[in-house]
Fold these 2 entries.
Entry 1:
Amino acid sequence: MLYRRLGRSGLKISALSFGAWVTFGKQIGDPVARDLMHAAYDAGVNFFDNAETYADGQAERVMGTILKASGWRRSSYLVSSKAYFGWEEDKPNQTGLSRKHLVEACHDALRRLQVDYLDLYYCHRPDPEVPIAETAHAMHDLIVQGKVLYWGTSEWSAAQIGEAQRLCTERHLHPPVVEQPQYNLLHRSRVEKEYASLYRTPTGLGTTIWSPLASGLLTGKYTAGVPADSRLGDPSLAWLRDLLLKDPSTPRKLAAVGALAEIARQLGTSLPRLAVAWCLANPNVSSVILGASRVAQLQENLGALDLVPQLTPELLAQIDRISAPVAA
Ligand code: NDP
């Protein structure tokens, strides 16, 4: 495993990490979740990603039970939660980034994950109804109380992150040090262009990127239809299938996936490995959060680490010519 600094913070994070979205407490049984976490940990993964909203809190409960039973030293792994979408009903203050919800969601996550502190705590989306100062003060207080070690954002604009960092510097608060954006061969602009200036500031910005395989599109498995035993074949995820497969840009994206699969074939590797390795090749990516419904998928994707040295500037330029014209 390769370990990278999380931005300019002192935290060391595995370049490949593992997340629970739509799988834990939902798509897969708890024994499979356990096998996946153990396979990841045994391969050197030290970061497990979660959120209050994943399976309405159940993903955190499943992960917490596995962590508790694992016998792993708390110092050997990082675990996160994210707040914003809520997990209960939809009453006022049960969602969002107010001090009230951030503190309550943190306490709920600590209880479900059965840990004393969260290593990373993310604001899962920006909240237009809460001043950034209120959010920043609440996150700072949770850090001072020892309930959170580092805080960050997910899918905030560069302007919003910059504003939070500026305000924290001015007020001597712990600043957000990490952002969790989508990043893959079909979705690039925010990580590569919008955030470019933030990586170079004194506070800096680590990134833990999500959906490196675009929910599986970048495995090639959706090129000839939707397999029943896949994420987009799950009836409860029809909204995601429609989002990804009914967009007018989908045919062009699937054609690009075919061309990328051909490059992988010529390299003697698989498309998922190539797609994950391409994310790792970006030095501004601190960690690529993998998702998997089976251990074999995880093992395959972990093999991407060995491929990175083969991604020469010429090969990256060739990949760019296919990906850049279709990527968001
Ligand atoms: P991916 O884009 O890598 O999709 C993972 C899914 O693709 C798997 O569950 C599996 O689905 C399929 N897959 C993975 N590897 C293979 C393979 N080798 N061959 C065939 N199919 C494969 O990642 P996720 O979308 O799961 O995102 C990763 C993590 O990022 C999440 O768990 C979560 O922690 C985080 N995240 C954060 C978000 C945010 O807003 N901050 C949003 C979304 C995710 P299947 O077998 O069911 O088809």
Note: The two ends are 30 Å apart (CA to CA).
Entry 2:
Amino acid sequence: MKKELLQLFEQAREEFKNTASSDTKAQEQWRSLYLGRKGKISEMAKHMKDLSSAEKKEIGKIFNEGKKELEQLLGGEVGAQKEVAIDMTIPGVAPAIGHVHPITQVMDTVVELFVGMGFDVAEGPEVELSKYNFDLLNIPKDHPSRDMWDTFYVNHGSSSEDVVMRTHTSPVQLRAMEDKEPPVRLIVPGRVFRNEATDASHETNFYQIEGLVIDKGIGVPDLVGVLQAAMKGLYGDDTEIRLRPSFFPFVEPGFEIDVSCKLWEAKTNGKKWLEILGAGMVHPTVLKNMGVDPNEYTGFAFGMGLDRLMMLNHGVDDIRLSYTGGLPFVRQF
Ligand code: DAH
């Protein structure tokens, strides 16, 4: 069988030499005749089972090497032909290019605007100590004012409530002031978390941007001036703001601020005033907690919901759409 096998390989090699390399039809015939599933080599392999194990070993080796050699003959020829056959004019597969999420777009615009007004950007952790999220902001434990925030407490081995998913960006006011001295102008963009039953206007996580200004002689007119300038910068010169008295434990006095602009009026069927911000003069206790002397310095702070801005800008009526991860939604912006 060894002799026959070697002869068969020799015959195949000879025949291949006589086949023109451009004649693909002849090559295919050759391949099928020798290397095909029912080709001569497969046929001969069937007789392997009658051999002794020593023979099997020897013949098997010749068999494998010979077959490989023939395949390479063909591969070389066909491979060379394939190279020639590449059509360079066929368009490629276009890579899918994403873009910035609409909330991030709004965040970037607002950050850029405040940076242009001389503000620095600060950031803080999303998993926060209650100390920063509440206590140092003048929201003591067991005080009813803590109920203003529906909080996710983080179980970290003890049953204490000293670690939370931050409910607002305000704790970063305290963190940032640990290594700063007034005068400061800061903004803090970031993600916050609330233990909400979700609906069209409530989500368990959303985005805010916080502001803090501390200097000598800062008063409510500065707060109004800065926020008015910011809103005009974002929505045009005919944008107006309106202050309503409100309560936040970390400011005194505190305000809710409504904004009126043409874009939103158009997107909300003519609703003039929309509540956008919480703000106020930093509470003396909070200044003290920052290591700042309230007799020497005063300041104002504000917090704004970025999801709400995005929704008003685009006429989106359900906050949950932002967080579905659905591409049909984000591709619109
Ligand atoms: N942290 C408040 C909230 O999420 C919003 C806020 C109100 C921030 C007044 C402030 C402020 O800085 O002065 O409900």
Note: The beta strands are 120-121, 127-129, 163-165, 184-193, 205-215, 240-246, 251-260, 274-282, 298-305.
